[in-house]
Each structure stands twice: as structure tokens, then as C-alpha cells.
Write a structure and sequence with these properties.
By secondary structure, the chain is an alpha+beta fold. It contains 4 helices and 6 strands, in the order ββαβαβαββα. Helix content is 39%, strand content 20%.
Length: 104
């Protein structure tokens, strides 16, 4: 996508096939971090891993960087945390304690 002749950071694969595939993955169980892989996204992922270890939960953790998949969740601000297909937080890095509360 170009805006004023410049490529934006969010230009991605928004074909109907890509969006359908992204919709299908939303029903998967587990935990997902939605974000480009920036420092905040990495900080949230690290906090989630610590929370899972402290709670002794054996849940799958996936970091989603595909913008079509992120858009399918309706998230406009990253990082976002998704638990069992439901967005529980977006736009901020949660503490380990906040994550543990959400997962209990």
C-alpha cells in the first residue's frame, strides 16, 4: 500500500485468500502475541513466557507477525495478547503479574 508515494510499514498481503487463512487460525487454542517483532512485542513475549513458567502452564505460544492475521483480530495497536482466540490486551506491555491474572 502506498500513501503519498511512500510504502507504509503495514503493507502486507491482504488478498482474500490470506485474510481467509488468517480468519481460520483465530479459532486455534493457545496464546498468541500479535506484533511486528519490535522491542515492545518481544518484551510482552518474554513476560508471557515467564508467567507460563511460574504458573506451570503447558500452553502453546505463537508470535504472529503477519499483518493480515493481526488485522483479522481487529487489533490496530500492538503488541496484543490473544488467549484461546480472544484478544485480552492490546497496545501495551503487560507485567508478569497482569498476565498471570489473565491466564488464571
Amino acid at each position: 500500500m502506498k500513501l503519498f508515494g511512500k510504502k507504509t510499514c503495514c503493507s502486507g498481503n491482504y488478498t482474500s485468500e490470506a485474510m481467509a487463512k488468517a480468519e481460520n487460525t483465530k479459532s486455534n487454542t493457545g496464546i498468541k502475541i500479535l506484533g511486528s517483532g519490535c522491542a515492545k512485542c518481544q518484551a510482552l513475549e518474554k513476560a508471557v513466557r515467564i508467567a507460563l513458567k511460574e504458573l506451570e502452564f503447558d500452553l502453546e505460544l505463537e508470535h504472529v507477525t503477519d499483518f493480515a492475521a493481526i488485522a483479522s483480530y481487529g487489533v490496530m495497536s500492538t503488541p496484543a495478547l490473544v488467549v484461546n482466540g480472544k484478544v485480552v490486551s492490546y497496545g501495551k506491555v503487560l507485567s508478569v503479574e497482569q498476565i498471570k491474572t489473565l491466564l488464571k
